[in-house]
Amino acid sequence: MKRSNKRGIAAPPPVLSALALSALALSATVALTLATPASAQSTDPIKIGVIAEAQAVAGASIPQAAQLAADEINAKGGVNGRKIEIVSYDDHSSAAEAVRAFQRAANEDHVNAVIASYISEVVLALEPWTGRLKTVMVTPGAASDVITQNIAKDYDNLKYTFHGYLTSTSLAEEVCSAAKDLLVKDLHMKSAVVMSEDAAWTTPLDAEYVKCLPQIGLKVLDHIRVSPDTTDFTPIYNKIEGEKPDVMITGISHVGVQPTVQWKQQEVPIPMLGISSQATNSSFWNDTNGAVEGVLYQGVSGPDVAVTPKTLPFVNAFKQKYGNFPSYCGYTAYDEVYYIADAIKRAGSTDPDKLVDALEKTDYVGTIGRVQFKGKDSPNPHALKVGPDTITGLMLQWQDGKQVNLWPANVANGKLKFPKFIKVGSAD
Amino acid sequence: MLFWQILIDGFAISSLYALGATGFALIFGVSGVLNLSHGALMVAAVVAAWAAGNDLHVGPYLGAAIGVVVGLGASLLTYFLIVRPLQSSRKIREEEKEIFILTATLLWGIMIQELIAYFYTNNAKTVAPIVQGVVSLAGVRTPSNEIFTAVVCWLVIAVLWLLVNRTRAGKAVLAASMNPRGVTLLGIELSQVYIAVWAIYGVLVGIAGVLLGMFLGVSSYSVGPLTASAFSIVVLGGLGSVSGALIAAYVVGYLETLTAYLISPAYRTIPALLLLVAVMYVRPRGLLGRR
Question: How many helices (H) and strands (E) does chain A have?
Fold first, then answer.
């Protein structure tokens, strides 16, 4: 029903009465055909399009987790008697392919909502299309603040976009909160070097790092942006080591295996803490042959951490179905299917504008915490609310092949532990 | 300190480039084939060694051996499936064959890259290193694996030199690279020489790949850059000249390392490419080129 937009139909020229008559007949037919799906709507499936990077470890979890949520909802009778159908598209990590998939999802497959991508550049490319095609989109993994800043600038057009993962600024704030407890209070660290990959999501991340690290007592000695094409990190580590920081605060997602393996191989004596998206994947231990030992990374969930009562049942069901643990955007994609379904139920319709209204009122306890979106008047409309009442995130560390949660203390299941080559406090 | 750091790091990376480019130069010298699936074959060897370690749980030695065997297999497959049918085709005119083979190997490389991304994701992979730990060389903390890489590269290049200069089969290969028609007149089957060269190339690609996997790691995205780097080293050294490729590998390796340390790692590959352009203007046949 949401595709009632008739831009394509030109007004018939008033020529012959016969023509006018046939036009009348035609419009009657159109009205009839339009009416048919309306009456059938109650049993038609609700379609959710999933556009993801199926060839990347992180992205592969998105369609899998969405399918799992859909299966669970359908097993319990669906939404108002309607089943949920997941339609998947692989964007091969390309914005152009993602836009084509989005157009196809909206125009040909007539999906009711889209869950899309963990790459900020891809989501930013899709964002204008959510308004043009009036199709709701929720991203399970992109981080750039610009996504929601755009909504603030052009709410009426871009209100169909929802940011289902933390913004870069929120991520940096969480890293600072964790670093304050783990590094400053416990280990008396005083200085840091920020090392981030050069990408859309790290621009606001780094800006917040540079702001919040001094506030918690870590002096920022340098701020290094690494090209995502870098294969040899030796010169970068060499430079950082020369500056003698107590810790490296990271912002890496597109790169991961190579900086981690080379950090271990060169025995760089400085610990790493921050965002290392690939380290959230359970396969990262094998991908790095164990070099990730000791790396601290921010996460929204961990394999054995019961953030909410829904976390572990989801992890176990995912593992049972797919044989591996979900990536960070698996958790969010799973929750997104649930709260989109919930919003459709509350809206009593799949009409995009009604769906937006219902999604804005989301108050849903998912696998990573309590999901609520910031309002229209916020500088970041449709960004997730963060804090102790909603989502706090975690700080985990790889230890002996396992992802151990260290922060916050109430859900911690281990203690900080570094490999031998790390020299804590050597710069004092 | 920085001087020694650059010297040591540059040596390791250059040795790896030298090994990677040697096989590429050899193939071109003997059969006139520019194999644009070069990077894909290297990545295939790395992913095989990685998968053997992670899925089959074999040790690092067996894992490395499996990687080399896959490199050899992939090379022979490339020859028999892609190159030979085009070389012996009667439907393609002789002067057009080079461009056909160029395109075919490029597409073959893309196919391998996509298959790897499909089955093993496009995330980077590293091979479990055979030697671990670090040693201090002139005050520079150097991973033992980096020294191991350089030593193995030079051992393999030395063995290759002995093979080409001291054995009958090797001399046939050398002769074929100088004058293919002359070799056939001596009663040596040219196709046998080709198979031998592709086999040698496969082993070199496998070893270079596995060492690269241990040293820096690769992903399916590395396919293009690896082919491009071998290609520019070989062009710089002079197409078909193995010793030219060796020298060029060190020029490129050190130029990159210097740039990464003294300017920025982000501009690493740019000066070498500028040098390549300059060589094209001033001395199009490369440093030691014959053709």
Answer: 14, 14
Of A131, A110, A122, A157, which is closest to residue A2 (Cα–Cα)? A110
The residue whose two tokens read 């496009």 is B122
Token pair recorded at residue B197: 């060269």
In CATH, the architecture of B2-282 is: Orthogonal Bundle (1.10)
Q: Whole-angstrom Cα distance, residue B123 to residue B116?
A: 10
Q: Give me the residue from A57, A258, A289 closest to B216, CB to CB.
A: A258
* Position A351, amino acid: D
CA distance B223 to B219: 8
B135 φ, ψ to 5°?
-130, 160
> Which secondary structure element, helix H or strand E, spans residue A224, and what is its range?
strand A219-226
Nearest to B260 among A60, A232, A421 (CB): A232
Residue A334 · residue A68 · CB < 8 Å: yes
Q: Rounded distance, CA B12 to CA B6, Å?
A: 10
Task: Tell me how far apart the alpha carbons of residues B124 and B120 are, in angstroms, rounded to a whole number.
Answer: 10
CB pairs under 8 A between A and B: 85
Closest to B216 measured CA to CA, from A43, A288, A107, A254: A288
Separation of alpha carbons A205 and A185, rounded Å: 23
This complex has an ipTM of 0.89
- Other beta carbons within 10 Å of A296: 26
Distance in angstroms (rounded) separating the CA atoms of residues A118 and A99: 14
Q: Which of A93, A235, A257 is nearest residue B124 as measured by Cβ atoms?
A: A257
Q: For residue B70, what are the β-bridge partners?
A: none
From chain A residues 129-188, the ones with a CB under 8 A of any chain B CB are none
Coil/strand/helix, residue A112: coil
Beta strands in A300-393 (DSSP E): 364-365, 370-371
**Across the 428 residues of chain A, what is the mean pLDDT of every consecutive 10-residue run?**
42 47 50 44 87 91 97 95 96 95 96 96 97 97 96 96 96 95 95 96 96 97 93 93 96 94 94 94 89 95 88 95 92 97 95 96 96 95 93 94 92 92 69
C-alpha–C-alpha distance, residues B277 and B232, integer Å? 10
Beta-carbon separation of A55 and B122 below 8 A: yes
The domains of chain B are located at 2-282
Q: Which CATH class is domain A169-299+393-411?
A: alpha beta
Q: Are A120 and A251 in contact (CB under 8 A)?
A: no
Q: Reply yes or no on domain A46-166+307-371 having CATH 1.20.210.10.
A: no
Do A265 and B143 make contact, defined as CB atoms within 8 angstroms?
yes
Quote the crossing angle between the two packed helices B190-215 and B38-55, to the nearest 10°: 60
Q: How distant, in Å, are the alpha carbons of A107, A218, A262, B164, B218 from that of A237?
A: 49, 19, 9, 41, 19
Domain ranges of chain A: 46-166+307-371, 169-299+393-411
Q: Tell me which chain A residues have a C-beta less than 8 angstroms from the C-beta of B9.
A: 232, 234-235
Q: B109 near B38, Cβ under 8 Å? A: yes
Query: What is the reported pTM?
Result: 0.85
